[in-house]
Design goal:
Elements (H helix, E strand, L loop, with lengths): L5 H40 L9 H84 L1
Length: 139
């Protein structure tokens, strides 16, 4: 049954679906950020510092370790950003779901009013028909 809220309900439903997709993408981004951070930690742990050798090897090892630490800092920032994005996406999804439920409720109430009105009209018609048939029988 179509009401004045039907189009709004479908629009809000589309908003909820798009927000769900955004949350899924944010979850995927967070998962990727966490795995990149874990990989950076693993690669840093796999670097062996030279115990002996010339100064070039020591400096190269030090530069490699610094690079690994910088990568870890970068990935930590990425994880924090992905967490913030996920929280924002979840909040938007919650807001969209509330709006959708609100308009769904209004549509349901409108449908109830229409049904009640139709039942009342049918009852009046039945009363009218009963009066007409009763008056025919009594004459």
């Amino acid at each position: 049954m179509k009401t004045r809220y039907t189009s709004l309900v479908s629009l809000k439903k589309n908003n909820v679906q798009s927000s769900e997709r955004v949350v899924q993408n944010a979850n995927l981004d967070l998962k990727n950020a966490n795995s990149a951070l874990e990989d950076a930690y693993n690669s840093l742990q796999s670097i062996d510092a030279p115990q002996s050798g010339n100064m070039k090897e020591m400096l190269a090892s030090r530069a490699l370790i610094e690079s690994g630490r910088d990568l870890i800092k970068h990935n930590q920032g990425w994880v924090e950003f992905a967490n913030k994005q996920l929280l924002q996406a979840k909040e938007q999804l919650r807001t969209d779901m509330i709006e959708h439920e609100k308009f769904k409720y209004l549509e349901l109430e409108e449908i109830k009013k229409i049904i009640k009105k139709k039942k009342l009209e049918e009852a009046k018609e039945m009363d009218e028909i009963a009066l007409m048939t009763y008056s025919r029988k009594s004459t």
